[in-house]
Prior knowledge:
By secondary structure, the chain is α/β, with parallel strands linked by helices. The protein contains eight helices and nine strands. Helix 7 links the parallel strand 5 and strand 6. The longest helix has 13 residues, at about 45-55. It is globular. About 40% of the residues are buried.
Amino acid sequence: MSRRLVIPDIHGCFKTFKSLLDLCDLRRSDRLYLLGDYINRGPASLQVVDYIIELISMGYQITALRGNHEDELLKIHHKTKTPKELSLPGLFMNKQLLDKHGKLAPHHYAFFSSLPFYIELDDCFLVHAGFNFASSNPLTDYQSMLWHYPHSQACNTFIKRVVCGHTPHTLKAIKEQIDQKSPILFLDNGCAYSSKKEMGNLLCFDIDTNHLFVNPNIDKVAT
């Protein structure tokens, strides 16, 4: 039976991501939605991105959204950089993905530039950071979809539920939102922040059953 699964901010934690997919027993019949921020903080941004691309090529039904880190990476790619900027450590932590000129490989550029800002399903919206409900049209405010801090949202004016990542919440708070069927569900448990209490897990949420898969970080997180 096909499932609809959602995974928020992976942040370069490749081993943890792969382990979570094993825990979920991901199948080609499932629909997997990734909420952005696949890169930075963790040690293996390149492996995370390449694995997502590989799974898609293998026939897995994966929809990957754009996060603020992917958007910033595209800006770096397009920017004309000085020699001094090119010598900066990691070029915004993306040394694995950028060449000596600060450019993405063609297949990586194609992947990042194709990422949508949000997706609407029959019963919910999926987005990286959230929507600006003060806007006359939240679905055209792309900056808010990348950066808007969910705790500043007064309400969800959509009829459908909104599922997002970006801003880390404790595992207890996330479970309470699921139990209470909150109209805005924040799924990011700060996978890269394994030293913080009630954080440091990568989560996978089954939209239809409300089941939450919890997988502790097993990567060495970059400082």
